[in-house]
Amino acid sequence: MTTATEVFDQLRRHLSPKLALTGSFAGRGAVETAADGVRVTLSDGRSVLDFGSYAVTLLGHRHPEVVAAVRQQLDTMPTATRSLANPVAAAASARLTSHLGGALPKVYFGLNGADVVEVAVKLARLATGRPRVIAVRGGFHGKSLGALALTHSPLYRVGLQGCAVDVVHVDPDEPDAVARELTSSQVAAVVFEPVQGENGAVPLPVEILRRWCQDAHQGGAFVIADEIQCGLRRCGEPSVALAEGLPVDGVLLGKPLGGGVVPLSALVCSESLYAPLAADPFLHSATFGGHPLSCAALPAALGAIEQLAEHGKALSSQLDAGLDALRDRHPAAVRAVRGRGLLRGVDLCSPATAGAVVLELASRGLLVSPCLGRPTTVRLLPPLVSTEADVAEALDILDAAVTAAAPTP
Ligand SMILES: Cc1ncc(COP(=O)(O)O)c(C=O)c1O
After folding, report:
1. Cβ–ligand 1 contact at 114 (below 6 Å)
2. Domains along the chain with CATH numbers
3. What is the mean pLDDT of the chain?
4. How far does residue 332's CA lie from ligand 1's centre (Å)?
5. Side-chain-facing half-sphere of 308: CA atoms under 13 Å
């Protein structure tokens, strides 16, 4: 068995030295070795609560029904010929469209979130014959070249200016922004996260989104809700945009779509957005798109998510009360608490304090995800399978970590 020291040495030599550094801080020199439900076991024998994993583990780790479905597929036909029709991908597409209510009937499967951001943009451009995309300040849509153009933070574009996609970023509190940009008749699509995840769990104003949808449709552009982080009941509903009655043409899903066991993402969309692919499926294809092992996980994952929907509401109310109390107890250190459902941000008084809180949390047994776009925010992503005792434990650890990391007045 490889020791933790050997793992860090391999990371430093063959992957990024910074991955070795951050991983070593988070694990206090230990590495992750196993996981079950909301708990991760480390090589030094400790066990930590996982409220992070960048929103993938909505069903925790190794959800038994998802593992069983994937294992059965592994023993039957784990990979596809891609020339014969595959029943697993077909069933997964039908299950997913009905999960979202059936109004968006078409599906494209990818593996990572960025895969389906790319295909949505490509289809909108092909279907409209227009080059431009409107995205939102603070939005995060991935880091492959096309998706990166939509991601707002310039941090990841240093040295890559002039990305392949023509993108305009607009302010999320500007109702006229889409109408103004559409006067150019160059806009193919408007893309937004109804709740911005990497930007610190920021819900966008629904009435402005509604106006943007109307303006986009009037101007002949598509509207795409990127729910790779906030969808699938992370924020309470299968789709935040559809639950709010926003007439979007496509919803992007990913992260927990493979049940936290296998990688899977999807664009679920209207006939008109999908039209270029209906005419020619090879306009956009990838070797592992619709992979049977990933697609086998989907029905099991959606079934488990549905069973836990009511429980998720109870956890969300518990978080409301707990995070409000945290803010009230630490008015100097905690600037704000934000979010919806099981996607929450705790905004601290400085990036240094937020960094110190993340390290305190890890050493006290709670893993969270920092925010790529807002370094003052610590993001909490409790799994739906958490018990109320798990959430209470996490809130206690959070309180202790803020007490320890807060700057002395
Ligand atoms: C809203 C949103 N869109 C797209 C992505 C990109 O997903 P991936 O990292 O799987 O490519 C992310 C990842 O965090 C995301 O949060």
Report:
1. yes
2. 31-59+308-405 (3.90.1150.10), 64-307 (3.40.640.10)
3. 96
4. 32
5. 26
